[in-house]
Design a protein that fits this description.
The protein is built from 16 helices and 15 strands. It has helices at 44-50, 88-101, 106-122, 136-148, 172-186, 206-218, 232-241, 248-254, 272-281, 289-294, 302-307, 326-337, 350-356, 359-364, 391-398, 403-413, and strands at residues 3-12, 18-30, 36-43, 55-66, 68-74, 125-131, 152-156, 158-159, 192-198, 223-228, 262-266, 284-287, 311-314, 382-385, 419-423. 55% of the residues are buried. Bound molecules: guanine (GUN) and zinc ion. Zinc ion binds next to strand 5.
């Protein structure tokens, strides 16, 4: 049955243009597959006139907006947010691997998966591309819980057969067998998707990377996710391990792991040739500013990425990242944008920041037209924002004289308190 939702309405055009109605109406209807999609949207007057008998829920003073898309997050790192370390490699050794080793226990994995998905919903995140751990049961746990909630969610078994301690290290041949079994079981079930997940080049033998590339060739519509060029010590290590490769990124190219729906976290220490390769292969960058600031990894160069027309979008990278909140991530991206931008002194606009965490992220994931914009025909994953959720936010929102000012107020002052509801399909 068709259902209408009336409030302020924020949507995006396919080119990233923000579309805003002060009195809007979103009309959704459930398809034969059980997924609700947008069938009409626009100003209340015009849209209501086209649907005279529509049941309408009215949320006065609220804003309906596309659910946020988190392009890179580690659900097993939920409990290690805020673990201090000198940098990436000691952080992995001292906190990450010990925490992830606990996911050999399916009960622990299930408990964290539930908490993690509750947390995404509280923060208005409706789709994530998430790392699980190297334990197959960690993947089953997250998919099972996501399926129960009818989420569009992508994850995969982490591949790490070397330079990894007992407890998280896997075995080359078995890791590929397990990956394929999980892929076959889950990819395309409801709205779930599988991602082939080599942790990063230093943790994968050449045989494992070769196997990952072969798996990717046999399943052209699954995702690939990994990390690249995050930290200077890591980059140096990769140069030692792969002396024949032109660059860190080109290691993945050599193993046929760059393509549409391949998503690489960080992409900080790239050069112009790397960026051209990202663009040529339609590989996407997941940009995680809170993580990069917390671990001291560096600054993503937005100017160079835009110039190279690299697909990119925003990500929390919890637990390197410090927050599940898309508002915190967008604000950090704004700060970082000042460091690397074609127009010195300027950063990303509120509309660009918001696009990078919704429709732009969806596009980078190869899910253009499916989620992230509330365009007609797309899936009805949306949030209801309260722009007066705190006393200060209420003052700020009341004084906004245009959309940019309203969005900027939310980006700077917003958090989970501004997310009044999260509606899944
Ligand atoms: N590189 C390899 N593994 C990880 C991880 O878990 N987090 C981050 N930030 N970088 C990584
Ligand atoms: Zn990561």
């Amino acid at each position: 049955m068709m259902q209408g939702y009336r409030a302020q309405l924020l949507r995006f055009g396919a080119d990233g243009t923000a579309l805003y109605e002060t009195d809007g109406l979103l009309v959704v209807d459930r398809g034969a597959d059980g997924v609700a999609r947008v069938v009409d949207a626009g100003s209340y007057g015009a849209v209501a006139a086209r649907h005279p008998d529509l049941a309408v829920t009215h949320w006065p003073g609220r804003i309906i907006a596309p659910g946020f898309v988190d392009m890179h997050v580690h659900y097993p790192q939920t409990d290690i947010i805020g673990a201090p370390a000198d940098g990436l490699l000691p952080w992995l050794a001292n906190y990450t691997f010990p925490a992830e080793s606990r996911f050999a226990d399916p009960a622990h994995a299930a408990e964290v998966a539930r908490f993690f998905l509750d947390e995404l919903a509280r923060h208005g995140v409706t789709t994530a591309l998430a790392f699980s751990t190297s334990h197959p049961c960690s993947v089953d746990a997250l998919f099972t819980e996501a399926q129960r909630r009818r989420l569009r969610l992508i994850t995969g078994k982490v591949l790490q057969d070397r330079h990894s301690p007992e407890g998280v290290r896997d075995e080359t041949e078995q890791s590929l067998i397990d990956s394929e079994a999980l892929l076959t079981r889950w990819h395309g079930q409801g709205r779930l998707g599988y991602a082939i997940t080599p942790r990063f080049a230093p943790s994968c033998s050449e045989a494992q990377l070769t196997g990952a590339g072969e798996l990717a060739r046999r399943y052209p519509d699954v995702w690939i996710q990994s990390h690249v060029a995050e930290n200077r010590d890591e980059v140096r290590w990769v140069r030692e391990l792969f002396p024949k490769a032109r660059s860190y990124l080109s290691v993945y190219d050599d193993f046929h792991l760059l393509r549409p729906r391949a998503v690489y976290a960080h992409c900080i220490h790239l050069d112009a040739q790397d960026r051209a390769l990202m663009h040529a292969t339609r590989t996407a960058a997941a940009v995680s500013p809170t993580s990069n600031l917390f671990l001291g990894s560096g600054f993503f160069d937005y100017g160079a990425a835009q110039q190279a027309q690299m697909l990119h979008g925003l990500a929390s990278d919890v637990g390197g990242g410090t927050s599940f909140s898309p508002f915190h991530t967008m604000l950090a991206a704004y700060y970082v944008g000042r460091e690397g931008h074609t127009k010195p002194g300027l950063s990303l606009t509120p509309g660009e920041l918001w696009w990078n965490h919704t429709g732009g992220a969806a596009r980078a994931l190869g899910l253009e037209g499916v989620i992230g914009t509330l365009a007609v025909g797309s899936e009805a994953d949306f949030i209801v924002l309260n722009p007066a959720a705190t006393p200060l936010l209420a003052r700020k929102s009341a004084r906004a004289s245009n959309l940019d000012e309203l969005l900027f107020g939310l980006i700077v002052l917003g958090d989970d308190r501004a997310i009044e509801r999260t509606v899944i399909a």
